[in-house]
Structure formats: structure tokens, C-alpha cells
């Protein structure tokens, strides 16, 4: 099953393998949330309290960057990474958290900070047609409609799984990451994606 799934993902790529490349990014000052309905309660994202850490904000390290996962405009994966700047040169566990439909990686920041306060490297990405991969508040729904009407694309879930495979390769190669302790979770759409990702990686 795993090899068949991976072959399906590879068959979707314009170029079957694109060399790993990383571009420096910067913090997103005005995150793009799509749709016209309510986003949901912010308190839900803050339900996992931070561990008490002296001078937490001063010790918090934020990295914003892009991974090139494939050719084309949607192959540029925006990544937000938070961790504590401590003196211990040990490899840390990683948790990747995925957002739900119409949101973006910045929505998850309270959760990322909570995990970072507990010694994790906490990571979030923008799924396909979300956040920095969107150009308007209707980008995601327009992409869904186009895929439904034209029938010439796979569900974006599979493409985001591809992004996460490449993210896993990148994280495993970092000197501050314990590659045997990389976990993934998500809410709603993010939960569906992480289920598919776990299936192919196990």
C-alpha cells in the first residue's frame, strides 16, 4: 500500500524529483484567512497552555522559510518553525501541526508556542491554496471548484502529503532534530492530511 501510494504521488509531479532547496522567509504580518464565515474560537488554539519558562519570548527562536517541494507556484512550501534557544546541543523532538480549511499556519501559533515551551521544535505549514499560497479570500474554494469541474487534478490532500514528505526529509537532516521523534497532528482538514501522511510514512 505504501509503495503504491508513493507511486501515485510521484506520478502527479511535473518533475518526479526536485532538488531540496530552502529560501529564507520573513514573519507574516497580516495572515490571509479565507471564506466569509467565522474562523472559530481563538481560545481553542490557546487551550494547551505554555509551560512556565523564564523570559520565554526572549528565548523563543522563530524561523520562517520556504521549501521547494516541486516545480510550479504551489511547490513553494511556507514553513513556520518555533523552538527555544537553549544551550543544550541535544537533538529535539518535532511536532508538525496542520491547520484546518480556510486558515493558515499563523492561526496555530499559540499551539506552536505551547509545544516549544516544552522542548519541542514546533512546525506549521500553509497547506495548498492557503495562507501564503493563496492570493485572495476565495483562492481555496476556487481551486476546489476548478478541480471538481475539470477533473484533471487529484485532491489537494495528496499534494500536501507530498509537501510533508519533503518537509520530513528536510527536518531529518537538521542537526537540532531527532529524526526518530517527528510527530504530526492537525485539526479538521489538517487531521485528514496527517492521517494520510502517517499511512504512507509507516
TrEMBL record:
Q: Which InterPro entries match?
A: AB_hydrolase_fold, Dienelactn_hydro
Dienelactone hydrolase domain location is 88-193
Which Pfam families does UniProt cross-reference here? DLH
Which Gene3D superfamilies does the record match to this protein?
Answer: alpha/beta hydrolase
Q: Name one GO molecular function term.
A: hydrolase activity
Q: What is this protein called?
A: Dienelactone hydrolase domain-containing protein
Amino acid at each position: 500500500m505504501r509503495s503504491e501510494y508513493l507511486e501515485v504521488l510521484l506520478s502527479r509531479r511535473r518533475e518526479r524529483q526536485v532538488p531540496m532547496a530552502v529560501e529564507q522567509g520573513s514573519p507574516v504580518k497580516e495572515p490571509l484567512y479565507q471564506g466569509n464565515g467565522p474562523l472559530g474560537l481563538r481560545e481553542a488554539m490557546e487551550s494547551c497552555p505554555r509551560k512556565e519558562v523564564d523570559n520565554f519570548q526572549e528565548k523563543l527562536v522563530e524561523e520562517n522559510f520556504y521549501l521547494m517541494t516541486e516545480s510550479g507556484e504551489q511547490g513553494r512550501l511556507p514553513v513556520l518553525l518555533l523552538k527555544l534557544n537553549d544551550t543544550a546541543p541535544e537533538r529535539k523532538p518535532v511536532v508538525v501541526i496542520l491547520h484546518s480549511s480556510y486558515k493558515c499556519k499563523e492561526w496555530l501559533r499559540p499551539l506552536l508556542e505551547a509545544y516549544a515551551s516544552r522542548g519541542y521544535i514546533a512546525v506549521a505549514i500553509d497547506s495548498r491554496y492557503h495562507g501564503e499560497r493563496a492570493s485572495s479570500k476565495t483562492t481555496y474554494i476556487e481551486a476546489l471548484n476548478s478541480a471538481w469541474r475539470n477533473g484533471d487534478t487529484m485532491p489537494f490532500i495528496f499534494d500536501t502529503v507530498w509537501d510533508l514528505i519533503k518537509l520530513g526529509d528536510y527536518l531529518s537532516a537538521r542537526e537540532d532534530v531527532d529524526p526518530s521523534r517527528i510527530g504530526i497532528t492537525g485539526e479538521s482538514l489538517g487531521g485528514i492530511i496527517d492521517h494520510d501522511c502517517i499511512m504512507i510514512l509507516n
